[in-house]
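Report of the visiting student (M.T.), summer placement. My assignment was to run the structure pipeline on a short list of targets and document each run. The first record concerns Dolichol-phosphate mannosyltransferase subunit 1.
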Amino acid sequence: GTAYIHGMKHATGNFIVIMDADLSHHVSLYFIKQKEGNFDIVSGTRYKGNGGVYGWDLKRKLISRGANFITQVLLRPGASDLTGSFRLYRKEVLQKLMEKCVSKGYVFQMEMIVRARQLGYTVGEVPISFVDRVYGESKLGGNEIVSFLKGLLTLFATT
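After the run finished, the structure tokens were exported:
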């Protein structure tokens, strides 16, 4: 969240793209999708169309799929990939969502979509192929999973 706030202070355009620092995604697809549907948010999805995940072990795939499944059942957010972090936002929509969101960590991405739907914003999706990083390690661990579940239950109770 702090990186989003910092980025918004320096953004000069009408749209903000949030993405992994390795620049592994094709931003042009997001602008095409946004223009086609005039969406407030365009989110990359690994779980729809020809999207997918490559390089993850079974445990990591199960955690990601499980988190998305539980969220779908409890919150019905109308988006297929709530834990991904590659998105295009209208700048004013992102600013409004940042004011409303309280989560930290992995649950933050989910809360952004849930709050967007709650506020009546439109969300489009673009299938992406996610390839696991070559360098560095994921921050996903037991504490993040527990935090995600707590955040999910909080959203379920408050939305």
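Residues 47 and 80 are 6 Å apart (CA to CA). Residues 1-158 form a domain with the Spore Coat Polysaccharide Biosynthesis Protein SpsA; Chain A fold (CATH 3.90.550.10). I thank the supervising group for their guidance throughout the placement.
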